[in-house]
Amino acid sequence: MRSLLILSVVLAVILGGHAYSSSWGRRTNSDYLLSRQTEIRNPIKNNYWNVNVEFPRAGTVNYYNISAIFVYDNFKNSSGAAPSLWSGGPGYRFATINLRGQVSRGINSTIEIWGR
User: Fold this and answer.
1) What pTM does this model have?
2) Which residues form a coiled coil (predicted)?
């Protein structure tokens, strides 16, 4: 019984590491969609993409507090970018999300930022 528990925990960690869709915060019915941005990059042989997505974009102002950030991997086999929240996020008015692609693979991710 104990070995079954250990096996299931190890399997959950392995599969969780390959799920490249992420979320931070919680969205409610009263939230507004502040930004939806799709980042697409073609693969580079023997190299990887490292893309920073900043909100608000340069030259714009955001007056709303961010309540949730969703990053969706548009590749169906989880071969897309691994997202990381580098600064800001829920509770702030700004956010920087880093998308790091896999070696010799492209990026196709959609970033949604919700706020109120």
Assistant:
1) 0.80
2) none
